[in-house]
Write a structure and sequence with these properties.
The protein is an alpha/beta fold. It contains ten helices and 15 strands. It is elongated and about 80 Å long. The structure holds adenosine-5'-diphosphate.
């Protein structure tokens, strides 16, 4: 039987031990094709170890990894042809220009020279480095180097791009360029898996997230689904006037604040508007606003790991 839909990445029972230390503990991860997946977690959670295993750089102690339908154990070479990796460590020769560097890497990938030159020009243009293509890399800022490094990882048109803290320590312009390119690549169908410890970065660009803590994948899925599963939404109802009756009798009442002739009533987490509204209407209160506060990714993270990011 042929599968109609092949996931980009599936791992099961994945374990990595360094001596007696377990850096990855029974990780079962599934990432859809075309996803933009952010792996979140504090330093030491195991994010880089996972990325290094998924790209074939290191071997797991036990467990299985499947990339685009291929088993990493038996088809490592084919997997490497499909994936690209950008990490914080920039792999470029300082004495050479971006153009020379990229041509060198293209020849290692056995690309033919004409299409390599075309692709290098196109990608350098996209990352705003065309004017610098013939200058030695050694004079570049970290952000400029990372933009060229980004092009290097895209030369062989990978269908899955892994990025390990790609914007760590970069200037705002380089960060913006890389984020825009990530979005553009993802829109053109490339699956993106990136690690970050910056919640706001994930919240802005991710379609799905995985939260790692002490080697375990404690939650993964679409951001909205993870938020809902926490059952921590909060409803705030504003009513007109300052009623003389006590509002504490409304089921789920938490607290209230009175200001400028209105009352804001905060309800306990998990109370839905359907629970609350009948009683409010029965009390003949005039509702002028209903606010629905969802937990931020930061709230989700703290709830699941007990740590601040
Ligand atoms: P993250 O990327 O989330 O910061 P890492 O995957 O780099 O986490 O590290 C996870 C844990 O494994 C850390 O405690 C780290 O010290 C340990 N670790 C990573 N690489 C090695 C190694 N080569 N030898 C021993 N311990 C390692």
């Amino acid at each position: 039987m042929r599968w109609l839909f092949v996931a980009a990445i599936v791992t099961s029972n994945l374990v990595k031990e360094y001596g007696s230390f377990r850096a990855l503990d029974d990780v079962a991860l599934s990432i859809d094709q075309g996803d933009l997946f952010c792996l979140l977690g504090p330093n030491g959670a195991g994010k880089s170890t996972l990325i290094r295993i998924l790209t074939g750089l290191i071997k797991p102690t036990s467990g299985d990894v499947n990339v685009s339908g291929m088993d990493l154990k038996t088809e490592a070479k084919q997997v490497r042809e499909k994936v690209g990796l950008i990490s914080e460590r920039v792999i470029l020769y300082d004495r050479l220009s971006p153009f020379e560097n990229l041509l060198f890497f293209a020849s290692m990938l056995r690309m033919d020279r004409k299409s390599a030159v075309e692709r290098i020009h196109l990608l350098l243009e996209k990352v705003g480095m065309s004017d610098w293509k013939d200058k030695p890399v050694r004079i570049f800022s970290t952000g400029m180097k990372q933009r060229v490094n980004f092009v290097r990882a895209l030369l062989h048109e990978p269908s899955i791009l892994f990025m390990d803290e790609p914007t760590l320590g970069l200037d705002p312009q380089s960060t913006r360029t890389i984020r825009n390119m990530v979005k553009e690549l993802n829109e053109s169908g490339v699956t993106i898996v990136l690690t970050t410890h910056i919640m706001s970065e994930a919240e802005h660009i991710a379609k799905s997230v995985g939260i790692m803590h002490k080697g375990k994948l404690v939650s993964s899925g679409r951001i909205e689904d993870i938020r809902s599963s926490l059952n921590k939404d909060q409803v705030i109802v504003t009513i007109n006037g300052t009623p003389s009756i006590s509002l504490k009798g409304i089921d789920g009442y938490l607290s209230e604040s009175r200001l400028n002739g209105v009352v804001k009533i905060n309800f306990q987490q998990g109370c839905t508007i359907e629970d609350i509204l009948p009683r409010i209407l029965q009390m003949k209160l005039e509702v002028i606003d209903i606010e629905h506060k969802r937990p931020s990714l930061e709230d989700v993270f703290v709830e699941l790991t007990g740590e601040n990011s």
